[in-house]
Amino acid sequence: MKMEVNWQEGFIFKAVCGGHEVLSDQHQAEGGTDKALAPAELFVASLGICIGVYAVRFCKRHNLPVEGMKVYLDWTVVKDPWRIGSIKAEIHYPHDIPETEKKGLLRMAEACFVHETIIHPPEIVVELKP
């Protein structure tokens, strides 16, 4: 898969992939204009969205309603090196659900592509080209 990330202005970048695009910026305290989610926020958002997608897939397979489902995320930042130290995701499901289905939904959500990528980190190579 390929993606292109283009500088726009200041600290605003536009990521383009498969005909879709998303912007990212820095907070004002970090020199940005706060016009879009910061990169770390996009990272956490991708996890939350992925968890949500897998939860919806589970619900659809088991004929469970999905209306009102939300994923709340909370994360900590640590130093040395500066990074996200922990992420907590909570799936809020406003419908009654049998205990066995709860366990299955959580297993499915934890198996989402982004979560698995974080648990089994990819090799990352950064190069400088003209």
Number of domains: 2
Shape: elongated
First-last Cα distance: 22 Å
Structural class: alpha+beta
Residue windows where pLDDT falls under 50 for at least 5 positions: none
CATH class of the largest domain: Alpha Beta
Strand ordering within the main sheet: 1-2-3
| β-sheet strand percentage | 25-35%
What is the helix content? 25-40%
Task: Please explain how this structure is put together.
The protein has 130 residues and is of the alpha+beta class. It has 2 domains: 1-36; 38-130, GMP Synthetase, Chain A, domain 3 (2-Layer Sandwich). 32% of the residues lie in helices and 28% in strands. It has 3 helices and 5 strands. The protein is elongated and about 55 Å long. It starts with a strand and ends in an 11-residue tail after the last helix.
Summed up:
By secondary structure, the protein is an alpha+beta fold. It is built from 3 helices and 5 strands. The chain is elongated, with a radius of gyration of 18 Å.
Throw out a few tags for this protein.
single chain; GMP Synthetase, Chain A, domain 3; three-stranded antiparallel β-sheet; 32% helix; alpha+beta; elongated
Secondary structure blueprint with pairings:
Layout: E1 4-9, E2 12-17, E3 20-24, H1 39-61, E4 70-78, E5 83-92, H2 99-110, H3 113-119
Antiparallel strand pairs: 1-2, 2-3, 4-5
